[in-house]
Amino acid sequence: MDNISTTIKTLVKKHGKKRESLLPVLQGIIKQENFLSEYAMVLVATELDISAAEVYGTASFYSFMNHKKGGKYIIRICKTITCSMKGKIQVLQAIEDMLKIKVGDTTPDGLFTLLETNCLGWCHKAPAMLINDEVYTSLTPERVREILSEYLTKNK
Which residue of 23, 55, 106, 152 is surrounded by the most CB atoms within 10 Å? Predict the structure, then answer.
């Protein structure tokens, strides 16, 4: 049995084989694997005895459920109007310039993936970004360069 099969069986045992277990199982896979492969979604469908289309439909509804392997650090930039009005475009440009990637890309070393996402819930401290589970707010291009430099330093 491969790692993903073991992971899914463990998650199903923990959350149960009910339809309402789907979301916690998918979240558990993402926490461990950092993305949801088609293979994993088919295995989940089999384990929960639901259609693969239902699993994919649920997974594709949520923007935080990546369907392709990303970097070690997933950077999500809020794309709401509030963040845009408060400097998101300049922050995004600073990230793209520093990492030499565009939205949707992963750095060649596999360290960072840059994505835009809907509201992160930090409009009062916009612009905001999330790196994996860490929230960063009140961003400026300078602050973003500092944050990314810290990640780069700890990964040398």
Answer: 55
